[in-house]
């Protein structure tokens, strides 16, 4: 039972903080839980040279390939290496569209009184130097109508979060991949004997893709805060573009005792190589003014 409580806590609730990879995001590099209300809309995945519209493929995927845990991990590691191979001396922008489908009115309340919305848009800019080291970050969480919920900034060895108005030490870090934290999820769940399944797919843009799924069947039904009904199993699925190495989507689904299911969380990403907006740069300036006080 304890391990499944850990599984649930891995995906439920988060806030932008002064920890983790220095982006102002919590614990994992873009490992936030999200959910979809219906079919996923097409998203744009682009880099400095290409832009493609990539809808997430149907869940009716081909028969999983017989692969070992180690080989799945190697596939994700290779995709991560490909995704960052040319990101040097530039700004990386990742926009995450996140939705939670739970019985809760929000995803928690921040110290400043702002509720973390169940539907949100998170923009993060990473300033990467010629060694692949992230030296500055700006993260902005918004509601779908554009209201700023919280901001996290790091630069010059310190970080600031608007929700707490606190400043703390923040180390620079290496960019290691754009998998939304999925490799960490995979390795963590494998410690409990969970076996991933991998399928090779073709994305609608004709790029080859990879979809990895981890199914966790609970020993006994579980009841958590997110739903009024006990869950009997959970599944995490991540889809990648094999050409770019980018994560396209990551979702978590729960099945319940009565046979029903809910797509608890989903994230979709748009990745571009571009400079921060004027607004984002202003938060960097604001943070430096606060540090100098």
How many separate structural domains? 1
Unreliable residue stretches: 1-64
Structural category is alpha+beta
The end-to-end distance, rounded to whole angstroms, is 49 Å
Mean pLDDT: 80
Strand content: 35-45%
- Quaternary: single chain
What level of helicity do the residues show? 10-25%
Major sheet: 12 strands, antiparallel
SSE arrangement, N to C: HEEHEEEEEEEHEEEEEH
Number of E strands: 14
Report the C-alpha radius of gyration, rounded: 19 Å
Count of runs of 4 or more consecutive helical residues: 4
- Globally, the shape reads globular
What does the model show?
With 293 residues, the chain is of the alpha+beta class. The chain has one domain. It is built from 4 helices and 14 strands. Strands 3, 4, 5, 6, 7, 8, 9, 10, 11, 12, 13 and 14 form a 12-stranded antiparallel sheet that branches. Strands 1-2 form a two-stranded antiparallel sheet. Helix 2 runs antiparallel to helix 3. The N terminus is likely disordered.
Give descriptors for this structure.
single chain; 293 residues; alpha+beta; twelve-stranded antiparallel sheet; two-stranded antiparallel sheet; 14 strands; globular; disordered N terminus
List the helices and strands and how they pair.
Elements (H helix, E strand, L loop, with lengths): L1 H10 L32 E3 L4 E3 L15 H16 L5 E11 L18 E10 L4 E10 L5 E8 L2 E4 L4 E4 L3 E2 L7 H9 L5 E7 L5 E15 L8 E11 L5 E10 L4 E13 L4 H15 L1
Antiparallel strand pairs: 1-2, 3-4, 3-14, 4-5, 5-6, 5-9, 6-7, 7-8, 10-11, 11-12, 12-13, 13-14
